[in-house]
C-alpha cells in the first residue's frame, strides 16, 4: 500500500485519537492497540517517513496516558481477567477452535486404538496404573486412585504438574507449532485410551460422573494452552504485515498472557481433583451440577463473554457490518 493511501484511510481515526477524550480504560486500551498496529505497519513499510514519526509520538502519548492512570494501575490485576484476557480469546478464536479440533481428533484416535488393540492401553497408561486400577475394580472401588494420597498433597502435585504441562505445550509452539501439536497428540491419545478403558469395563457413565468433576476444567485448560502454543507458532509462520521478529514478540506476549490466565483454572481443577473427586459416592445430582457449572463457565468465559466485551469496546461494529 502506498503511504499516501495509508494516511488517507486512517487520518480521520488518528485525528479522533489525538484528542484523547475517553476515560474508559477498555476503550483507551482498544485505541492504543489500534495505534500500535498502525505504527508497526508504518515501521515495516515506511520506516523513515514522517507518518511513522507521527504515529510513534501518538502511541507514546497513549502509553503515558494509560500508565499515568493510577486507578487503572491499581485495578490492573482485576482488569486482566475482566477484559484483557477475554479479548485475547476473541482475537484468537481460530487457534482455540483448531486446538479443540486437533485434541478431539487425537482423543478419538486414542479411543479407537484402544478398542482394536488390547495392548494399547497398557502402552499408553503403563502397566503399573492399569494393574492398580484393575485391582481397584475388583475391590469395588474403581476410582480409588483419587484417594491414594491426602487432599493437600494431591492438590499441590496436580496443580504444579498441570501448570508445567500447559507451559511446556505453549513453549513448544516455538517449533513452528509442530511441538504444540505433538503435545496435543500425546494428551489427546492418552485421554482417549484412558476414557475407553473405563467404558470397556462397563464404567463409562460412572467415570464421567467422577473423573470429569475436575476433568472439565483441566482438559479445557489444556486445549486453551494448546491454542496459546499455536498463537506463538503461527506468529513465526504467518507474520502478516509485521516483521517476523516483531510478530514473534507479539505472539510470545499474547500467548504468555493466555497461559498466565489459565493458572486460576488449573488451581480450581486441582482443588476439585484433590478435595472433591475422591468422594466417589456423592449424589449423582451433585456431580452433574459441578460438571455443568464447570462447562458453562468455560463456554461463557472463553466464547460468549469475549464476544460481549468485543462488541462493547467496538460499538460501531454492527453499523459497519450493515
Task: List strands and helices in order, with pairings.
Blueprint: H1 3-18, H2 25-45, H3 50-68, H4 70-74, H5 76-91, H6 93-116, H7 120-125, H8 127-138, H9 151-171, H10 178-200, H11 204-237, H12 244-276, H13 284-313, H14 317-321
Helix pairs in contact: 2-3, 5-12, 5-13, 6-10, 6-11, 9-10, 9-11, 9-12, 10-11, 11-12, 11-13
Mean pLDDT: 89
- Helix-strand string: HHHHHHHHHHHHHH
Helix content: over 70%
Query: How much β-strand is present in the residues?
Result: under 5%
Overall tally of domains: 2
- Please give the count of helices: 14
Radius of gyration: 24 Å
CA(first)-CA(last) distance: 26 Å
The major beta sheet can be summarized as:
none
Q: Overall 3D geometry?
A: elongated
Keywords: Membrane, Transmembrane, Transmembrane helix
Organism: Paradesertivirga mongoliensis
Transmembrane segments: 96-114, 163-184, 196-213, 219-238, 258-276, 282-303
Protein name: Stage II sporulation protein M
Question: What does this protein structure show overall?
Answer:
This protein has 2 domains: 3-74; 88-312, no CATH class. The protein has 14 helices and no strands. It has helices at 3-18, 25-45, 50-68, 70-74, 76-91, 93-116, 120-125, 127-138, 151-171, 178-200, 204-237, 244-276, 284-313, 317-321. The longest helix has 34 residues, at 204-237. It is elongated and about 75 Å long. It starts with a helix and ends with a helix. The model has no long low-confidence stretch (mean pLDDT 89). It comes from Paradesertivirga mongoliensis. The chain crosses the membrane at residues 96-114, 163-184, 196-213, 219-238, 258-276, 282-303. Keywords: Membrane, Transmembrane, Transmembrane helix.
Amino acid at each position: 500500500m502506498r503511504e499516501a493511501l495509508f494516511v488517507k484511510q486512517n487520518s480521520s481515526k488518528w485525528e479522533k485519537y489525538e484528542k484523547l477524550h475517553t476515560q474508559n480504560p477498555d476503550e483507551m486500551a482498544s485505541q492504543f492497540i489500534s495505534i500500535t498496529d498502525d505504527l508497526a505497519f508504518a515501521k515495516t513499510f515506511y520506516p523513515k517517513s514522517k507518518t511513522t514519526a507521527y504515529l510513534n509520538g501518538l502511541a507514546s502519548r497513549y502509553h503515558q496516558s494509560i500508565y499515568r492512570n493510577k486507578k487503572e494501575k491499581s485495578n490492573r490485576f482485576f482488569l486482566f481477567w475482566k477484559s484483557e484476557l477475554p479479548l485475547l480469546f476473541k482475537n484468537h478464536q481460530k487457534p482455540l477452535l483448531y486446538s479443540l479440533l486437533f485434541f478431539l481428533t487425537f482423543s478419538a484416535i486414542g479411543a479407537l486404538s484402544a478398542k482394536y488393540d488390547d495392548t494399547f492401553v497398557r502402552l499408553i497408561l503403563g502397566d503399573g496404573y492399569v494393574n492398580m486400577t484393575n485391582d481397584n475394580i475388583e475391590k469395588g472401588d474403581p476410582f480409588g486412585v483419587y484417594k491414594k494420597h491426602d487432599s493437600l498433597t494431591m492438590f499441590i502435585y496436580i496443580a504444579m504438574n498441570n501448570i508445567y504441562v500447559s507451559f511446556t505445550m505453549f513453549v513448544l509452539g516455538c517449533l513452528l507449532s509442530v511441538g504444540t501439536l505433538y503435545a496435543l497428540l500425546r494428551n489427546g491419545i492418552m485421554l482417549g485410551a484412558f476414557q475407553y478403558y473405563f467404558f470397556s469395563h462397563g464404567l463409562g457413565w460412572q467415570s464421567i460422573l467422577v473423573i470429569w468433576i475436575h476433568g472439565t476444567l483441566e482438559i479445557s485448560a489444556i486445549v486453551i494452552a494448546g491454542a496459546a502454543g499455536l498463537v506463538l507458532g503461527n506468529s513465526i509462520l504467518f507474520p502478516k504485515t509485521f516483521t517476523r521478529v516483531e510478530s514473534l514478540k507479539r505472539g510470545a506476549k499474547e500467548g504468555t498472557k493466555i497461559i498466565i490466565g489459565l493458572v486460576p483454572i488449573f488451581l480450581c481443577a486441582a482443588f476439585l481433583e484433590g478435595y472433591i473427586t475422591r468422594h466417589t459416592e456423592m449424589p449423582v445430582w451433585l456431580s452433574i451440577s459441578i460438571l455443568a457449572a464447570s462447562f458453562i463457565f468455560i463456554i461463557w468465559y472463553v466464547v460468549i463473554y469475549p464476544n460481549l466485551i468485543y462488541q462493547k469496546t467496538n460499538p460501531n461494529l454492527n453499523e459497519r457490518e450493515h
